[in-house]
Amino acid sequence: MIQIQSFTFNPFAENTYVLHDLTGEALIVDPGNYQQQEHDVLTRYLEERSLKPIRIVNTHAHIDHVLGVSFLKYRYELPFSLHPDDAPLLRAVKTYAPNYGFPAFDEPEVEQWLHEGDTVTFGSSSLRVLHVPGHAPGHLALVNDEQRFVIGGDVLFRQSIGRTDLPGGDYDTLIASIRTKLFTLPDDYTVYAGHMEPTTIGYEKKYNPFLK
């Protein structure tokens, strides 16, 4: 069984996720840790439980989701995975990071490009990859059908959706991604979003004002 632990990091209140199972292997999704205190919180969680992180996967490459990638790559010698359509967003972060108060941002190298239909594995667990653009052109969601959950990044929030006014964003594309990809999942699937608390597919179908 997959255990999901979330941490809220950086001034954007971004949710970083650690997924691990009984084998002790762990997947880190969207590491937003930047300050040393945030690094310590994350590494302490891993090390106190004797977890072995094996990979970093990002749903997308906006600054608040990639701040901790390089730290973790160097600390644990981890490969980093991203959708290729978000490569320009990743390259752009270093140009504007100082303006947001992150002068020490270190651009990470991507070892593996992920696409729709790929599978991300760790331990005895697996997640299937969906391409859900709109908030970002290469935005991914990670789905586990056995435990009925989605790591959804900044696509769908509780009674809200991801913003589309950033470079590469498009409102109609985002709504289409939600309706044709996420909303085809059963209502009881939990959505672990990139900000705020978790929600469910069924709740958002019923109450999300952007998707009436």
Automatic annotation (TrEMBL):
Cofactor(s) recorded in Swiss-Prot or TrEMBL: Zn(2+)
Superkingdom assignment: Bacteria
Domain Metallo-beta-lactamase as annotated: residue spans: 13-195
An MF annotation (GO) of this entry: metal ion binding
Family annotation (Pfam families): Lactamase_B
Entry-linked SMART domains: Lactamase_B
Keywords recorded for this protein, A-Z: Hydrolase, Metal-binding, Zinc
Protein name, per record: Glyoxylase-like metal-dependent hydrolase (Beta-lactamase superfamily II)
Species this chain originates from: Rhabdobacter roseus
